[in-house]
Design goal:
Layout: H1 13-20, H2 30-50, H3 52-58, H4 74-86, E1 92-97, E2 104-105, E3 115-123, E4 134-142, H5 152-155, E5 162-170, E6 174-179, E7 185-190, E8 195-200, E9 211-213, H6 224-233, E10 244-245, H7 251-261, E11 263-267, H8 283-296, E12 300-302, E13 322-325, H9 327-340
Parallel strand pairs: 1-3, 9-10, 9-11
Antiparallel strand pairs: 1-2, 3-4, 4-5, 5-6, 6-7, 7-8, 11-13, 12-13
2,5-anhydro-1,6-di-O-phosphono-D-mannitol binds near residues 124 and 125.
Length: about 350
């Protein structure tokens, strides 16, 4: 297999993260280390995902695979990997994960740090059995309390307070995309050398959108405004050339495609479904981190009425409707909702 080598100077993720540090004169290197450990988690999870089909076969007789390791569900594996790389470093005050009901404390025997890490270890994991792309989503905040173990207050912060956020997509190749507020940068994992190399510097969402991405089977449950907006993106409204539909059902993959190609992803509220009155996606673990990435690439994210990054979370697993992608399209969704839906 040939190694993936971009033309021009090679830039590893480590070097890139270090260079980004110059934007923060007060930086101590803690955030740099934290991001680097997330990249490492991405490599470990990626290699495990690639063997997922085999692990199933090799582990078929019992609970152990051929290496004598316990065969785990991949999302549990991803959860444990991220936790164990970050519990002892002294960088974090606490963590929060989509897989855990409560905040995850740092064990008392380890030093408490100044950051908070929130993550969805393996978003879209129900797709794994069909070999469809999945992803890890992360965001980092500064703690707001001053000392001791992190608290709920440290975790329930609006997305506007995010210090860094991004995702790792496990697709036909593995990519890490992140922002610290100075552009959005994408790295592709070269499996031959085990390094993330800069392949997509300074990603901007193209002005001209191509795709709309939504689970349209839910349409009967959407508000009038959202249904009319959908007609609009399909081009059934004067003056707008319709977009093509693409829906993977794995948000990181849907978001990533639209980030590179232009478009909008949305998961609206389901008005008649008591299980999803605010949609499906979680503000802290899914919506806010990707909203931060979208805005830093020139896009925008809204719940249909307000900027996602301005929402003050009330609960760890709070769900919100999400419209994310090209700024003009998300603003259009807000306009339809304002015009046709009564608050
Ligand atoms: P998960 O966190 O349980 O994996 O669910 C989130 C996923 C997103 O990746 C995706 O956009 C959405 O659920 C798909 O939901 P649906 O099957 O309702 O279209
Ligand atoms: Mg998820």
């Amino acid at each position: 297999m040939a190694s993936f080598l971009p033309k021009g100077p090679l830039q590893t993720i480590e070097r890139h993260i270090l260079e980004q540090q110059k934007f923060y004169p007060e930086a101590t290197g803690t955030l740099t280390g934290l991001l680097y450990d997330l990249a490492l988690a991405g490599k470990i999870i990626s290699s495990h995902i690639q063997r997922a089909g085999l692990a199933e076969i090799l582990g078929a007789t019992g609970d152990e695979n051929v290496q004598g390791e316990e065969v785990q569900k991949l999302d549990e594996f991803a959860q444990r990997t991220i936790y164990r790389l970050n519990d002892h470093t002294g960088r974090l005050a606490c963590m929060g994960s989509e897989e855990e009901p409560d905040i995850i404390p740092i064990p008392e025997r380890f030093p408490q740090g100044k950051y908070v890490l929130l993550f969805d270890p393996l978003d879209g994991s129900s797709n794994i059995d069909s070999n469809v792309s999945v992803g890890t989503i992360f965001s980092i905040y500064r703690r707001v309390t001053t000392a001791g173990p992190g608290t709920l207050e440290d975790v329930l912060q609006a997305g506007s307070q995010i210090v860094a956020a991004g995702y790792i997509i496990y697709g036909s190749s593995t990519m890490l995309v992140y922002s610290t507020g100075y552009g959005v940068h994408g790295f592709t994992l070269d499996p031959m050398i085990g390094e993330f190399l800069l392949s997509h510097p300074d990603i901007r969402i193209p002005e001209k959108p191509k795709y709309y991405s939504v689970n349209q089977s839910n349409e009967i449950y959407w508000s009038d405004g959202v249904q009319r907006f959908t007609r609009y993106v399909q081009g059934m409204d004067n003056g707008f050339k319709g977009l093509s539909a693409r829906y993977i059902g794995s948000m990181v993959a849907d978001f990533h495609r639209n980030l590179l190609q232009g478009g909008i992803f949305y998961y609206p509220a389901d008005l008649k479904d008591p299980k999803k009155p605010s949609g499906k996606l979680r503000l802290l673990y899914e919506c806010a981190p990707l909203a931060f990435v979208a805005e830093n690439a020139g896009g925008y994210a809204s719940d249909g009425r307000q900027r996602i990054l301005d929402i003050q979370p009330q609960a760890l697993h709070q769900r919100v409707p999400l419209f994310i992608g090209n700024r003009s399209l998300v603003a259009k969704a807000e306009e339809f909702i304002r015009t046709y839906d009564h608050a």
